[in-house]
Design brief:
Number of strands: 7
Strand content: 15-25%
Distance between the termini: 10 Å
Largest sheet: 7 strands, mixed
Structural class: alpha/beta
Number of domains: 1
Order of helices and strands: EHEHEHEHEEHHE
Amino acid sequence: MTIERFRNVLVLAPHTDDGEFGCGGTIARLVESGVKVTYVAFSTAAKSVPEGFPADVLKHEVRAATAVLGIPESDLKVYDFEVRMFPTLRQDILEEMIVLQQEIDPDCVMMPALVDLHQDHKTIAEEGLRAFKRTTVMAYEIPWNNLNFSHQAYVRLETRHVDKKVEALACYASQGHRNYTREDYIRNMAFTRGIDVGCDFAEIFEVYRWIL
C-alpha cells in the first residue's frame, strides 16, 4: 500500500510555509502521481513579517512555493486569521474547516501534530480532528515544535521530491533569516528519516485516523 492510495488530499497549514516544511516532499510525490492536493493556509502572519518586506509578502510567497510543488492556484486557499491568536478564534476556524470538508471532501488530511508547542499549530490540529471526523488524518512533523512525536508512518521520497521541497521553501525570502530554512537542514532531516527505514529520504507522520 502506498500514499497514492489517496486521491484527494487536503493539507492544513496554520501559517504559510508550514505545510511545505512538514510534508513538502510528500506533496511533490503525490502531485507527481496525479493525486489532487489542496493546500489551505490559515494565516499569512502579517504581524511577523520582517522589516523591509511588504505586509502581504507571504501571500505571494505561498503562491510561488505551492506552484513549485505542482499545486495549481485553484487548489490553494489562504485565510487571514491573526497570527498567534488562533486559540481565541477556534470556532471561526472550525466553521471554515467544516466548509472545506463539505466542498473538498478529502480522503486524507495532513496537518500539524496535537503535541505541537505553537498555539496556532495546536489549534489547527485540535479543530482539524473535530472537522474531519470521517477522514484519514495524519500529522506532519515540525521538529522544533514537537517535543514528542510518534514515528508511525514514513513516506519514502526520491531526490527529486526533496529538491522540490527545497525549491519551494526557497520561495520564502521573507523567512530566510530563520535557521530552520537552511537547505542543509531540510535535506538532512529527509536523509535522517530515510535512514530510519532504509531508504534514501523520507518524511514522517503521526496517524490519528486511518480509514481503509
